[in-house]
Specification:
single chain; alpha/beta; Rossmann fold; 2 domains; 7-stranded parallel sheet; 5-stranded parallel sheet; 11 helices; 14 strands; 30% helix
């Protein structure tokens, strides 16, 4: 089969549903409150990777691995028999690379795709290209190493697949059942003070948290901000090394300077700092100036970096000088932190459901009463500088 004639056939390839996956998982013939399992197809030329990913995902009771494939051609044959809800896809494969396959999927039969690759830092621009071409998320394959890191990779992988299964699209054996580590709060990194400082200065900062769908949402937000905008500190759930490439991409598109944060970087007007993958980022204050601290620590809300950690630090050290923005993403990371910011006098904004790829994090923040205002994505920048706590 030649590449030029490559076609994903089958009118029911994505289950006859609109882009975004099989909505019947929320309710259907299984009865109210019961969910169908998320069907996952793994595409990777490495047999070890296919086996490892299948073992990790199959251990979760909400996920069913319906098959694996060594390359896109084998994947298409498997997909014609049964449509997956989520596809995990490697990039470097024989016969057809993952980016080309992604482009064909999104043009012929759109479905949630998670790029799961061992790309190195020098190749991480490819990961950005994957996101631009419609991938819901990009993450590392599980690494060899300590058991702790392996378990943390499991947690992230499972969460990413579940988030992908409900995302809106653009254009081991039975005894060894996986149980995730306890879900930690921001207390694991930074204790909550009895009372937040309400002192204000002339400097204002903006802290932003996002996850699934956030790479594109952040582009839209920062592109719309002027060069003299108050400094931004951003946590986007993203793998190690990829954040540097993401920052470079945004820096080339936006009026503001965008860079991957380094320990001690000042938060300056006209600059956006993105937390490095696999490290927490905190706001600190020295006199009237703000800077970031980059530190290690446990997963918080199953993430590192964690939005809750960033937001709590902003509540503690910036108080009413800060504006908090919580955007598209699965789960609840950042919701409690945004509430703490509001209680400390900060202005708070949540992205609305219609413009969110996954309305998880903003929804939880709204439920807690943490958001002063709920806005569509393209209105956040316009309202950001005028945000005031009533």
């Amino acid at each position: 089969m030649s590449k030029s004639k490559f076609e994903i056939k089958g009118k029911d390839l994505i289950g006859g549903t609109s882009p975004g996956g099989d909505q019947s998982r929320r309710a259907g013939p299984m009865g109210a409150g019961m969910k169908k399992k998320i069907k996952v197809l793994i595409v990777d030329d490495s047999a070890v990777a296919r086996q490892t990913l299948a073992e990790i995902l199959s251990a979760d009771p909400e996920i069913e691995v319906i098959g694996t494939a060594a390359d896109p051609f084998i994947a298409v044959k498997r997909m014609e028999k049964e449509a997956p809800d989520v596809l995990t896809l490697d990039v470097e494969m024989p016969r057809m690379d993952g980016i080309t396959f992604l482009q064909k999927i999104m043009s012929q039969h759109p479905m949630p795709v998670v790029i799961c690759s061992s790309l190195t830092e020098k190749n991480s621009e490819t990961a950005m290209k994957a996101i631009e071409n419609g991938a819901v998320e990009v993450m590392w394959k599980p690494r060899l190493g300590t058991r702790r890191f392996f378990e943390e990779s499991r947690i992230h992988l499972i969460d990413v697949v579940k988030a992908a299964s409900v995302a809106k699209l653009r254009g081991r054996n039975g005894k060894d059942v996986y149980k995730p580590d306890p879900k930690l709060t921001a207390d694991a990194v930074l204790s909550k003070p009895e009372k937040f400082s309400m002192v204000t200065t002339t400097e204002q900062i903006v802290v932003v948290g996002a996850s699934t769908g956030g790479t594109e949402a952040l582009r839209v937000l920062i592109e719309a901000l002027p060069a003299d905008c108050p400094g931004l500190a951003i946590v986007q759930h993203m793998p190690e090394h990829f954040t540097a490439a993401f920052a470079r991409r945004l820096d080339g598109l936006c009026a503001m300077e965008v860079k991957e944060a380094e320990d001690g970087d000042p938060v300056l007007r006209g600059r956006a700092l993105i937390a490095p993958g696999n490290r927490h980022m905190l706001i600190k204050r020295s006199g009237a100036r703000y800077y970031v601290e980059i530190r290690d620590g446990p997963l918080v809300c199953r993430h590192r970096p964690s939005v809750d950690v960033l937001f709590r630090s902003a509540a503690r050290y910036a108080g009413g000088n800060a504006v908090g923005v919580i955007m598209t993403g699965m789960g609840d990371d950042g919701a409690r932190g945004l509430l703490e910011m509001k209680e400390a006098g900060a202005s708070t904004i949540a992205q609305d459901e219609e413009s969110s790829v996954v309305f998880g994090m903003p929804k939880e923040a709204i439920r807690l009463g943490a958001a002063d205002i709920v806005l569509p994505l393209r209105s956040i920048a316009k309202n950001l500088l005028d945000a005031r706590h009533s």
